[in-house]
Design brief:
heterodimer, A: alpha/beta, six-stranded mixed beta sheet, 10 helices, 36% helix, B: mainly alpha, 2 domains, 0% strand
Chain lengths: 258, 357
Amino acid sequence: MAKRIDVSGLSAFYGAHKAIDDISMTVEPRSVTAFIGPSGCGKSTFLRTLNRMHEVTPGGRVEGKVMLDDENLYGSNVDPVAVRRTVGMVFQRPNPFPTMSIFDNVAAGLRLNGKYKKSALNDIVEKSLKGANLWNEVKDRLNKPGSGLSGGQQQRLCIARAIAVEPDVLLMDEPCSALDPISTLAIEDLIGELKERFTIVIVTHNMQQAARVSDRTAFFNLAAVGQPGKLIELDDTERIFSNPSVQATEDYISGRFG
Amino acid sequence: MSHAIQERPVSVAPRRGPLSHARLPRWTPAAVAAFSIAAGIGIGLAAGWHSKVQWGMLAALLFVLTTYAVTTKVEGARQAKDRVATSLVWVCFVLAVVPLLSLAWVTISKGMAVLDVYFLTHSMNGVLDTEAGGGVYHALLGTIEQVGIATLIAAPIGLLTAVYLVEYGGGKLAQAVTFFVDVMTGIPSIVAGLFILATWNLMLGFGPSGFAGAMALAILMMPVVVRSTEEMLKLVPNELREASLALGIPKWRTILKVVLPTAIGGITTGVMLAVARITGETAPVLLLVFGTKLINPNPFEGAQSSLPLYVYEQYAVGTDASVARAWAAALVLIAFVMILNLVARGIARWKAPKTGR
């Protein structure tokens, strides 16, 4: 099911402000691609253009093409809602629905889309929670509110919720930045398992994490504050961290600037 | 190390470091309050002041001053300021609560005189206003129907307006709507009544009815519902909306199934407060519902009564019996609003997002 993402000439705007400029890259299916770069360089913005969440922000606007296999996400007849069913997303801060139980949280995507069989729902929830390595911890309290879980559990619940709708691509926006090292490890292991089934794109500020989980790494940078962010280079993670082809990447990775 | 700490003799007074200083015992504020009240009463009696308000003012003043004097002496100037601020807060709290309690007390003590099952289940049909007897049933029924219809009109419109403003609006139209909602909040109830009188009754030629009154009440209720719902919807974290949208859930379903349920507790409370506000409205009811002594269960035809109108009418008659009825009806009105509030709180607590483990 995993699909290839092919971005060409993509720029994103907030009103008149250009946030990212002319980005082209290919994300391979069944792989993990990490985005690294300084704050404000447009990693998250770029990630959000990949499932049309960018335009949810007031004033958000996109130019360019994002091909998912052979369909342009920004084609004139494309329904953003359908795009988001195909390209799922996990956010920086765990955000389970506070009014719903653990079970309902995982089932939310299916239920609220109205496309499910009642008999299959239990199986899907169990499968998704197992897929997110959370099943054993919550199987006895599926009817308890999701907000009662710990931060790391909540984030895995959000991952379970995202994979329950069976997307082709999973976008993760700094999924571990609010978590402790043990929860982070659990989620990194999970990413390793999920890449068998999904195309995964992850934004991270943690370079060790990028080195640990990703197959390919993209480095973003911006010329100065207020300038749009640009893709500096995209290569195999090993190459980026050992022998990057651009000096700026090496400076960033080794902690030298300017 | 911990061993050494345990072995330290308990009886030795704690050493004065630069961070510690003399403290007043914990019961000091209570003692000062008791002293001030006693002094207030004593001085008031001695000076022969008739008004108990003067006694109370004196006690409050004494409370603040004594607190300041005692604290300055024992604890120092900074602590004194702190204590004075605290005691001022207490005095203001008491000042706010006293009228409330006395209002409740007066209404209950005067209202209980004629309030019984007979009073609640009978109308004024065949009873002279000047004589004892009769009841409030027709007015209670009228209030319930008028407020119910007003809520049925105003709550959905207000709710949807707020949803538009928070979830969809943002342009010039939303600004204009917000502005007019603010203006509407300040509409005097008599103006709303006159507006319905001019359009519904005079232009379209309908007679007085509960429904006409309900429309005027709906006009008064709508801005309150919009305002409170808007604030509640703004409190829903944007992350929840994004989480839902990112699951491929359409925006309208996101609002219906994620945003509104998260805010439903606050929204219910807001609607109930608006209901409480319009329940006591007299002016539009006087103009449009007209008032009657008979039971008229049909809100769409013929004059009805309502509790505030009933209170006004009975008090205006001025005999002992009618004034007693007015107080009893006022008590029924307060009880009605209070029960609505309790129900709203119950719903809010039941529906509120749960955080337990």
